[in-house]
Design goal:
Elements lengths: L12 H11 L4 H14 L3 H6 L2 H7 L6 H19 L12 H9 L6 H11 L9 H10 L8 H11 L5 H14 L18 H6 L1
The chain binds iron/sulfur cluster.
């Protein structure tokens, strides 16, 4: 129904990490605006790392929660510099997935979804970020229980996915959530998953 989207990202992994932190609890437009302002004000990440959190907060305010996100960004930059000696995260493209994920999750303020976004989008690893649309759909379909931790849910779904479907499924489920499987009044009659969906079957 939605085609098969291809991942043609050439983004730097650290740029993607900061971008994903900025995208929390806001729209894509606002987070992209905040990221552009941040890059304009601090053209290299060392400058941002050395800046005061207030200076970072003032340039990312378009993305919302600027005071919280500025602390997370500064801490992430500090930690990466301390542990790696530079800001090159390209090792995440080839390190064992568990190790790559563990590195990202060990950064304060980086959760399972953010880690998975970096690994899937820019490192092109077979991992599966889950946002609120994807959680809702998997719960309705019957693949996830109502109560499950973020980390366990990511693991459980990742174990079910066939190879090379992670990116297209991620993008298409978000599209499904936005267009058809709405939080209220999902359009189950138009949904390509209805034959396989517990909630959909109860509605039809
Ligand atoms: S059948 Fe309905 S509840 Fe199930 S995934 Fe589709 S729209 Fe959502």
């Amino acid at each position: 129904m939605f085609g098969v989207p291809l991942n043609d990202s050439h983004e730097d992994p650290l740029d993607e990490l900061i971008n994903t932190i900025l995208s929390q609890s806001t729209t894509n437009i606002n987070s992209h605006r905040a990221f552009a302002s941040l890059k304009q004000r601090f053209p290299d990440w060392e400058q941002a790392r050395r800046a005061h959190t207030d200076s970072i907060a003032s340039v990312i305010k378009a993305g919302g929660l600027a005071n919280v996100k500025s602390v997370v960004i500064k801490n992430v930059l500090d930690e990466i510099k301390k542990r790696r000696g530079n800001f090159d995260l390209s090792f995440l493209k080839t390190a064992p997935i568990a190790e790559a994920r563990e590195f990202l999750l060990s950064l304060k303020g980086v959760g399972p979804k953010t880690a998975a976004c970096v690994l899937l989008f820019t490192c092109k690893r077979p991992v599966f970020p889950m946002d609120t649309h994807i959680f809702r759909i998997f719960r309705r379909v019957g693949l996830l229980p109502d109560k499950i931790s973020d980390q366990l849910a990511h693991q459980k779904i990742e174990n079910l996915l066939p190879p090379k479907k992670h990116y297209s499924l991620h993008i298409n489920l978000i599209t499904l959530g936005r267009r058809i499987c709405h939080p209220k009044n999902p359009k189950c009659g138009q949904c390509p998953l209805s034959d396989h969906c517990d909630f959909g079957q109860s509605q039809l």
